[in-house]
Design goal:
It is built from twelve helices and 13 strands. It is α/β, with parallel strands linked by helices. The chain folds into two domains: 169 residues, Glycogen Phosphorylase B (Rossmann fold, 3-Layer(aba) Sandwich), CATH 3.40.50; 162 residues, Rossmann fold (3-Layer(aba) Sandwich), CATH 3.40.50.2000. Helix 7 links the parallel strand 11 and strand 12. The protein starts with a strand and ends in a 6-residue tail after the last helix. This is Glycosyltransferase family 4 protein.
């Protein structure tokens, strides 16, 4: 099949790539860069300040979703092969072009072709309708180190569902130093959780270092003896899992936490049933993969190249088999009926 003209729709919350935190936008960045490297034409719609190798980039003119959609419609190339929507505003409008809705969380409804980031979420929340493609990262962006320092690390949102209190429990059981690096949302429930269950336990052994990104995040991930991922909710994927492994650092997660056992499927020794077993594994380190084995695991399963391979296979399958629905009363058609617009 010839090279494709692919439209990538990012969100309007963070630029592509994000400066610090931003899993969805980093996925868009890695995918865009790899598709362009392979000779495909990529048109990106994204937040102001985005900087990629996309063939052409359009920055959203406002924060109004209606205006954003109309802006996309005005600038959409007439010979677009496929639209890859990470945002949702285009997919829900049901354009007369094959369009996938890449869900980086859970359920998506009212779209042509839903695509999830794990098979677990596809089956559990997507009723096994659609597809799944794993997240991928560029290994060269992650600092690798075989030498480790004697501290545990938690990276993620400071919330109950992410299990920060369980990471603290593991640190206490093992006597190990714990660094908590994460964002505290400006939300009453999150703040109450931090003030009542986390802050009172902070001391010289257990420290909250705040949100981290860039070089600071790389240093923490690559130097930690082990990363704790005690999430208790149905994780759609768990990007921290592969980020830690890419740095050569083992990461422990729970067997019941959504896609965590799927992502760590090739390293079952890193899965735990509860905080007690997590603490036992921190102390014993029995059968832990070496630093090089951790990084190799990501290279063979979750690299940006593998992610691009899988999306290209999906794009071509959808285009070849015409696995999409043209909905006559779609939002897209209703908008075009109300105003005249021309594709470039």
């Amino acid at each position: 099949m010839r090279d494709l003209k692919i439209v990538q729709i990012s969100t309007n919350s963070l630029p592509v790539p994000p400066i610090d935190y931003g899993g969805t936008q980093r996925d868009v960045y890695y995918l865009t860069e790899e598709l362009v490297r392979r000779g495909h034409e990529v048109i990106l719609f994204a937040k102001k300040g985005s900087n990629t190798r996309a063939t052409e980039t359009y920055e959203y003119p406002s924060s109004d979703k209606r205006e954003q959609l109309e802006f996309i419609m005005r600038h959409l190339p007439k010979d677009t092969d496929i639209i890859h929507d990470h945002y949702g505003i285009v997919a829900k409008a049901n354009p007369p072009i094959p369009t996938i809705r890449n869900s980086h969380s859970k359920t998506v409804e009212g779209v042509q072709i839903p695509v999830y980031v794990s098979e677990t979420i596809l089956k559990t929340y997507g009723s096994n309708k659609g597809y799944y493609v794993y997240n991928g990262i560029r290994l060269s962006d992650y600092k690798f180190s075989r030498k480790k320092k004697d501290y545990l690390l938690f990276v993620g949102r400071v919330s109950r569902m992410k299990g920060v209190h369980l990471a603290i429990e593991v640190a206490k059981k093992t006597g190990k130093k714990l660094l908590i690096a994460g964002t505290l949302n400006d939300n009453a429930n999150y703040i109450e959780y931090f003030n009542t269950e986390i802050k009172p336990q902070l001391n010289d052994q257990i420290r909250y270092v705040g949100p981290v990104g860039g070089d600071k995040k790389q240093e923490l991930l690559s130097n930690a003896s082990c990363v704790l991922f005690p999430s208790t909710w149905d994780e759609p994927f768990g990007l921290v899992l592969i980020e830690a492994l890419a740095c050569g650092t083992p990461v422990l997660g729970f067997k019941y936490a959504g896609a965590v056992p799927e992502v760590l499927g090739g390293l079952p020794q890193l899965l735990c049933k509860d905080a007690d077993e997590m603490a036992e594994k921190v102390l014993s380190r029995k059968n832990f993969p070496t630093a090089r084995e951790c990084r190799r695991y990501v290279r063979h399963h979750y690299s940006d190249k593998i992610m691009a391979d899988n999306f290209l296979k999906l794009y071509k399958r959808i285009i070849r088999k015409k696995e999409y629905k043209l909905i006559s009363n779609s939002k897209w058609n209703k908008i075009t009926a109300k105003r005249s617009w021309k594709r470039r």
